[in-house]
Design a protein that fits this description.
The complex is a heterodimer of chains A (102) and B (677).
Chain A (H helix, E strand, L loop, with lengths): L2 H24 L3 H26 L3 H31 L13
Helix pairs in contact in A: 1-2, 2-3
Chain B lengths: L6 H15 L5 H29 L6 E11 L2 E9 L1 H24 L6 H20 L3 H19 L6 H32 L4 H11 L5 H17 L8 H4 L5 H10 L4 H8 L1 H5 L2 H22 L5 H21 L3 H28 L17 H15 L6 H15 L5 H26 L13 H16 L14 H9 L10 H28 L2 H8 L1 H11 L4 H21 L2 H20 L4 H20 L4 H21 L6 H21 L1
Antiparallel strand pairs in B: 1-2
Helix pairs in contact in B: 1-2, 1-4, 2-3, 2-4, 3-4, 3-10, 3-15, 3-19, 4-5, 5-6, 5-10, 6-8, 8-11, 8-13, 10-15, 13-14, 13-18, 14-15, 14-17, 14-18, 15-16, 15-17, 15-19, 15-20, 16-18, 16-19, 17-18, 17-21, 18-21
The chains are: A mainly alpha (102), B mainly alpha (677).
């Protein structure tokens, strides 16, 4: 991959990451927050791919596979938590789901 | 002109993007845009077909590379499209039937709240299907393959508020996944063995590298076949298709009868050179096709839901196509695919129109006597059923089925038994198709017609009816030794190595047998559902017949079998794992003995000695030494920690979003430091 393309890819990754972060901060529904986290993970993955392509090294893709695996492993845990939250609080609003008093 | 054929799949995909990402549009805009892109795509594919025909189909087809998709050392995949007689036929079917069904859907779905979402999915489907059939390499084909699978899932579960629809959608998706996993492994095998995924290169290399019956080619074809039987709903992966009728009827017409389910047939036809190298797999295809064809035709006989009748009928007709593929008559298979797309889409649109006119009534037993109220639908049903049964000479279904039966007979893979099975299937087909006609349109009236379908619904049905009657002549040849125009066209894309010689007598005999089978079926249906002689009614009432009927009604109890062999053991396993052995063993062997020892050892002599000699003196010292400097120091420390905790507690709000904000701010701060330093 040539120079400018890498820059573009990194820019796309940055934009994706910022979008995901914005979603995470702005959304209150746990499901959408989860999706935003996935978007951020993918942005990181794209960054790795681009960097790997830039240096002609396979490490970037290896890392991406790890991220993919991580995301796959994370989703069932997170979804199970979401289910539990819904059962216990009857809402998915992240702001309403707290028992702390601080 | 030919260079522009990549626009055909791009049009519906663009429509999908606009409908999905764009703002919420009015119904008129949505339907106008969809119809515009579909019409353009259909016109473009028609003109490209004409251009191809004028140039004379080149045996290798035309390919056009758009861009590089994946570029690695030793593995390069392009987004490239390839067009030849085979893909052109598929493109014409997809864009043509797609346009008609979408026109129909603009009226059928007009009351639905989620009009835009529906057409977005439909556009995505048409685009993915076009990518599937135009793909130049197997990876791109797989992308389209998964795309249509996704759309099928989304559209079966379109009315997702009903839990049953969601379940049907998941079933379709999961069953298809089983086949797709096999197909993906097959692709990997082909790549590691042949070093490429481009279809034409694979076909070339395979003939050079493998001899007939090589275990590797057998494995590869079996894996591809796995994908094909999943998508084309063949035994044993057919269970999803009858349930897929939960989707809106235009979806059933376009996806679950005319186009997507034929993708398996297309895949095998496309890679037919591989299958020709693996006679074992071909025999397997014949066996699967024959079983499926007979099983589904018999199940269609007793269904009450009109859409389920046609669903089983689709499975059965796909079985015919598989038989043709298995005996090496790929041209005949594609011809049947072509005619089937027309008449089955017509029948599904008819079912939809009946439901539209009768307040969503699907049960055949509640219809009846509709001939006078809905004459247009009546004639559509007669034409569709006649073509499906293959009534001689006037219908398209006759010509295509006749081809398959003929090839099944003379091919070395087939024989007399296969011809017999095919003829039995023909009788059953005619029986169940005219059962629908007689039950819905004759006899007593059970329901009043609430509204009649408008021109947007009747016009597509009219066009499809004309096609169901007319296109058969493309596959007609005046002399038996010479293949017909359509078959010769297909042969340019899929060269047959040694065409089996057909004599005039053989052709004539099969034609006579096929026609009499169809007529026999129609006569049987007339006798059973119109005349209803008393002796027949008595036979039907007997227990044995009722049991068979129930067995057929449940589709040979495949669902029950899968529940018993897969679902139940899995559930039991999950149940067992919930209170598993390890946990119990720990409890019995460690926790309980320890607890009981500890209980009995309480208050023994060791305990007492400790208490007298150590605890009491210590307590005494502690008592007199209260409140010295050290104590104050420690107490001060506790207070400090307490205060710190109260302060720090303010940070711990339990608000996830607050944490995320702090985290992000911290990360930004650190990154800023790194940049500045």
């Amino acid at each position: 991959m040539s120079g400018p393309l890498v820059v573009h890819a990194v820019m796309v990754a940055g934009i994706l990451f910022a979008l995901g972060l914005t979603g995470l901060l702005a959304r209150r529904n746990l499901l959408f927050m989860l999706m935003s986290v996935e978007v951020m993970l993918n942005a990181a993955g794209l960054g790795f791919i681009a960097a790997g392509a830039r240096w002609g090294a396979p490490d970037g893709q290896v890392m991406f596979l790890f991220i993919l695996t991580l995301a796959a492993a994370e989703v069932p845990v997170a979804l199970a938590l979401v289910l539990q939250v819904h059962r216990r609080f009857h809402t998915l609003d992240a702001d309403a789901v707290t028992l702390m008093e601080g | 002109m030919l260079d522009w054929f990549w626009i055909i799949p791009a049009l519906p995909l663009a429509g999908f993007l606009v409908l999905t990402l764009g703002p919420s549009l009015s119904r008129a805009t949505v339907s106008g845009m969809t119809l515009a892109t579909s019409t353009l795509a259909a016109m473009l594919s028609a003109s490209i077909a004409v251009a191809l025909l004028q140039q004379g189909f080149h045996p290798v087809g035309y390919s056009r590379s758009l861009w590089t998709w994946i570029d690695l050392d030793g593995f390069t995949t392009r987004i490239a499209l390839y067009i030849d007689a085979l893909s052109m036929t598929m493109v014409l079917i997809i864009t043509g039937v797609g346009l008609l069904v979408q026109l129909y859907a603009t009226e059928y779905m007009s009351e639905d709240d989620e009009y835009q979402r529906f057409f977005a999915y439909m556009n995505l489907f048409v685009g993915s299907m076009l990518v599937l059939v135009l793909a130049d390499n197997l990876l791109l084909l797989f992308l389209g393959w998964e795309g249509v699978g996704l759309c099928s899932y989304l559209l079966i579960g379109f009315w997702y508020r009903d839990l049953l629809n969601g379940r049907a959608a998941r079933k379709a998706f999961i069953v298809n996944r089983i086949g797709d996993a096999a197909m993906l492994v097959g692709l990997c095998l082909l790549f590691t063995e042949l070093g490429t995924l481009e279809i034409q290169a694979i076909l070339r290399n395979a003939t050079l590298q493998w001899t007939i019956g090589d275990p590797l080619v057998v494995t590869a074809t079996v894996l591809l076949l796995g994908g094909a039987i999943g998508k084309s709903a063949q035994v044993p992966l057919h269970v999803w298709l009858p349930d897929a009728m939960a989707g809106p009827t235009p979806v059933s017409a376009l996806i679950h009868s005319a186009t997507m389910v034929t993708a398996g047939v297309y895949l095998i036809a496309r890679t037919h050179t591989l299958f020709a190298l693996a006679p074992v797999t071909q025999t397997a295809i014949v066996v699967i096709g024959t079983t499926t064809m007979l099983f589904a035709a018999s199940s269609a006989l007793v269904q009450r839901d009109i859409k389920r009748v046609f669903a089983y009928s689709t499975i059965s007709q796909l079985g015919y196509m598989f038989i043709a593929l298995g005996v090496g008559a790929t041209g005949a298979a594609i011809f049947h695919l072509f005619t089937h797309a027309c008449f089955k889409a017509l029948l599904f649109l008819l079912a939809g129109a009946l439901m539209f006119s009768l307040h969503h009534e699907k049960d055949l037993m509640n219809m009846g006597g509709l001939r006078r109220d809905l004459p247009l639908l009546f004639w559509a049903a007669v034409i569709g059923a006649a073509s499906l049964s293959g009534l001689p000479f006037i219908t398209a279904g006759f010509f295509s089925k006749d081809q398959i039966l003929l090839q099944a007979w003379i091919s070395p893979n087939g024989g007399r038994w296969l011809l017999t099975a095919g003829l039995i299937g023909s009788v059953l087909t005619a029986l169940y198709s005219f059962r629908v006609v007689f039950l819905a349109f004759f006899g007593e009236k059970h329901r009043e017609v609430s509204k009649s379908p408008g021109w947007r619904m009747t016009l597509p049905m009219g066009i499809l009816a004309v096609l169901s009657l007319g296109i058969g002549w493309l596959g007609w040849s005046p002399r038996a030794e010479e293949p017909s125009w359509f078959i010769r066209l297909m042969d340019t894309a899929m060269p047959v190595h040694q065409p089996d010689p057909i004599t005039e007598a053989q052709a004539g005999m099969v034609a006579v047998l096929a026609s009499s089978a169809a007529l026999l079926g129609v006569a049987g249906a007339y006798l059973m559902y119109m005349q209803r002689p008393a002796s027949l009614e008595a036979v039907v009432k007997t227990e044995a017949v009722q049991a068979i009927r129930q067995f057929l009604f449940r589709g040979w109890a495949f669902n029950w079998l899968y529940r018993l062999t897969i679902q139940k053991p899995f559930r039991l396993f999950a149940q067992a794992a919930k209170h598993d052995l390890v946990e119990r063993a720990y409890d019995r062997l460690l926790v309980r003995p320890f607890l009981s020892t500890a209980g009995s050892a309480k208050g023994d002599i060791v305990d007492q000695a400790y208490e007298r000699l150590l605890m009491r003196p210590f307590q005494w010292v502690a008592d007199i030494n209260q409140d010295d400097v050290l104590d104050r120091l420690y107490r001060g420390l506790t207070r400090l920690v307490e205060q710190a905790a109260v302060t720090a507690r303010r940070l711990q709000t339990g608000q996830v979003r607050w944490y995320a904000t702090v985290l992000a701010a911290g990360a930004v701060g650190l990154a800023g430091l790194a940049v500045l330093a």
